[in-house]
Amino acid sequence: MINNYSNTAQLKDLMTAPPMTAAQHAEIMRKRNEQRRKIEDAREQQRAERDPYGDHA
């Protein structure tokens, strides 16, 4: 489970920081999606190696 409370920034710092630009947001989302795809690919690869004959469900 991901811990969403690990950021130690103070509330004042968060509330007074300028909002991110659309380009910054897009870059963050691209990196997040890329990381998620890598994790999903690794899981699929691991499942394929565990069951070489495919799904029998």
UniProtKB/TrEMBL annotation:
Name of the protein this chain belongs to: Uncharacterized protein
Originating species: Massilia orientalis
Lineage of origin: Bacteria, Pseudomonadati, Pseudomonadota, Betaproteobacteria, Burkholderiales
